[in-house]
Amino acid sequence: MTRTKVIAGNWKMNCSLEQSQALVTEIRGMVRDERNNDSEIVLCPTYLALPSACKLVQGSSLFIGAQNCHSETNGAYTGEVSAEMLNHLGVSHVIIGHSERREYQNETNAFLKEKVISAIKNNLVSIFCLGESLEQRESGQLWDVLSRQLSESLLDTSVTAKNLIIAYEPIWAIGTGVTASAAQAQEVHSFIRNWVAQHFSVEMAEETRILYGGSMKPDNAEELLSQIDIDGGLIGGASLKPRDFVNIHKLAK
Ligand code: PEP
User: Fold this and answer.
1) CA–CA separation, 139 vs 133, rounded Å?
2) Domains, the chain, ranges and CATH?
């Protein structure tokens, strides 16, 4: 079975509105001129830039994703934005459970499950992130940590291979310039796919896209993306450099 690869850019808290518009426009132009495969591209700017980003990608093959959503639809949640609001805007994807939010906003697996449920209800594709710290890896807790992140956030929800993309992001590789080796990433991706097969179905496991995230760049993307269970990348730093981002996309065949 061939899974269409996904290259997603997480712009984090970067770019003014004008800079975001320019970046979307530049990437759109480059992809139109140079696109050489069918892999999907998802751009995730700040909330501020979402309305104009959605307009700027109309008529193109690009998707727009948010970096977060709240689990509730509306109410007294100052500073938050709901999945329903994102859907009304034309956003199609939402990153849920990025390690920076898990760490700085103390987001728990249980809370992330509520967000996944809300994203599904509002027709958003969740890009569900999970990953271990270096300390957890080195102390032999890797599989336990990942199993708990998967079980506590995805079990008893109606996730499918269509409304869920999983992103394995080892915390020690995010923004550090250190990348997991292709073998390390493949080992974890295979574990995640087996977990999906065991807890949902073999068919769903075969179809679910599992992205790698953690200092992916044009010079390491080819090897990572050639691994059998790596179906794309969630890219931070390099997604702000249009040439690098589009070059990574070109490697995602
Ligand atoms: C990320 O934050 O999702 C990420 C992978 O960042 P970077 O590519 O900069 O490591």
Assistant:
1) 10
2) 5-251 (3.20.20.70)
- The preferred substitution site among 215, 239, 241, 244 for testing ligand 1, maximizing ligand atoms within 8 Å of CB, is 215
Q: Is the CB of residue 157 less than 8 Å from the CB of residue 113?
A: yes
| CA 202 – CA 4 distance, rounded (Å) | 18
Cα 37 to Cα 27: distance, rounded to the nearest angstrom: 15
Is the Cβ atom of 45 under 6 angstroms away from ligand 1? no
Residue pLDDT, tens place only, 58-81: 999 999 999 999 999 999 999 999
Rounded to 5°, angle at Cα 56 from 51 and 60: 125
Tokens of 91: 């956003």
Would residue 15 be called left, alpha or beta, if left means φ above 0 and alpha means ψ between -120 and 50 degrees? left
pLDDT of residue 177: 86
Ligand 1 site, residue 235, Cβ cutoff 6 A:
yes
Judge contact between 130 and 202, C-beta under 8 A. Answer: no
